[in-house]
Amino acid sequence: MENSLVSIITVNHNGWQDTLELIASLKRMETYPYEVIVVDNASEGDDAEKVQRACTDVKVVRSETNLGFAGGNNLGYQYARGAYILFLNNDTVLKAPLLSPLVNRLADKRIGGVSPCIFFYHHPDSLQYYGYQDMTPITLRHTTEKFSRDRMDEYMRPKQTDILHGAAMMVRRDVIEKVGMMPEIYFLFYEEFDWSLRIREGGYILYYEPAAQIYHKEGMSLPLLTPFREYYLYRSRMLFARRNNKSWRKVLSCLYLLSVVIPKKTAEYVWKRRIGLVGAVVKGICSGLFADKERRAIR
Fold first, then answer.
1. Greatest Cα pair distance in the chain
2. What residues form DSSP beta bridges with 7?
3. What long-range pairs does 60-63 form, CB within 8 A, spacing at least 24?
4. Residue 50 to residues 28, 56, 87: CA-CA distances in angstroms?
5. DSSP at 135
6. Is the whole model's pTM more than 0.90, yes or no?
7. Residue 83: burial class (beta carbons within 10 Å; 0-12, 13-18, 19+)
8. 249 and 162, same structural domain?
9. 223-243: per-residue pLDDT in tens?
């Protein structure tokens, strides 16, 4: 382990152009010591070879199967040498130095993880992440106040947060060694919500640091409103309810997903003539209801 080094882990799946753009922006903007580990999550083409040829100084790790978001990041962690681990989506871009403010924030040993301010790449006057609050326990609805351009000054103040953002989150190695790696049961969605809770249960606080900023091409790595996305979104939502609610809250949350969400989404997608999405939601919720909710990182 190198005490001052940041290990940047990014997962690639059929998105080598975005990955190369991210790496190029790191090379333009960053002076803080870092290494880049690219996990190719079973891309259909020769993404790994393209990235390795273009960036010979980058460590490319190939997985023969798609391990999902958490699994891919956990695999990359096995090759990391730094004391600071930055999990960074491959569809993000730097426009200014990112690492120093995050490392400086983690100098406070009470803080287990930190996320930067995240702008929408295609709408750079709007923020995607400015700190998240916990979801409601039964319905799992977001309680974070909606973004307003009128409050931009407020968003530019560092603060404690409940949830890190999966597109960009830095965690110290000693924290990971204490609380464990990301839970791989989800495959997609809700991993950062679950892991944030695990870090907080480990006795740490989490932070939002707007002195560090990044731009996210939201929706580029996973298109919206596809059966694939809806299946894993609602599967993970059910799993999160089962893993993180206790006693009667767990029962009510599961009943809510079964008796309210399924009929609501069915009506919505029938109205939109997107019948394939109805089956994806139902299958996802049912899969989450019966899946092994305790399986965690497997490496």
1. 56
2. 35, 85
3. 61/37, 63/39
4. 20, 10, 21
5. P
6. yes
7. middle
8. no
9. 678 999 999 999 999 999 999
